Amino acid sequence: MPLSPDDAVIATYYIETNQSLDAVARAIAETETTGRWSGPGAGTTLFHECQGEVYAVREQGPGRGEIDLLFPLVNMNIKEAAFPSLWLTLVGGGTHALLAYEKSRVVDFRLPSQALALSWPKTPSVRKWAWMDMHNSPIMDSDRLSRINS
Questions:
Q1: In terms of pLDDT, which residue wins out, 65 or 85?
Q2: Number of domains in the chain
Q3: DSSP code string of 81-118
Q4: What proportion of the chain, given as a percentage, has pLDDT over 70?
Q5: Tens-digit pLDDT profile for residues 5-21
Q6: What span, in angstroms and rounded, lies between the C-alpha atoms of 92 and 75?
Q7: What is the CATH number of the domain that holds 95?
Q8: Which pLDDT score is estimated for 126?
Q9: What residues make up the domain containing 84?
Q10: Which of 48, 95, 117, 132 is deepest in the core (most CB within 10 A)?
Q11: Which among 129, 93, 79, 81 has a CA at the least distance from the CA of 11?
């Protein structure tokens, strides 16, 4: 059964690739959630409930555009660690190790109403964005991160 946006975070990424944007979107959704099923037979019910999905692909030119991915809330510890769970889902994991693209940026995300009802950190992040020179730019930029980390 397809994943509903009511039960998932919708993450929007800007991607530049020499491959198919659709294929890259599927690879990121798979890598950031379940990976491939390696057990005997078909995947279990839990495996399928935890799989991410491609929600939309908007090509802006050959090999570049935005993709929307659905990340199931069931994969996140929303009640006890909402912010770290969300952040690690959006920018952590194997996505940034993929060789399928040249550039990846998280440009937006949307939370379902059940996640919005939780308490979120009250600390302003403005100082963090200023320190990283993030004014008027996408949330994450792989080129900027490599400069910060080097």
A1: 65
A2: 1
A3: HHHHHHHHHHH-GGGGG-SS-SEEEEEEEE--HHHHTS
A4: 71
A5: 888 889 898 989 988 99
A6: 14
A7: 3.30.70.150
A8: 46
A9: 5-149
A10: 95
A11: 93
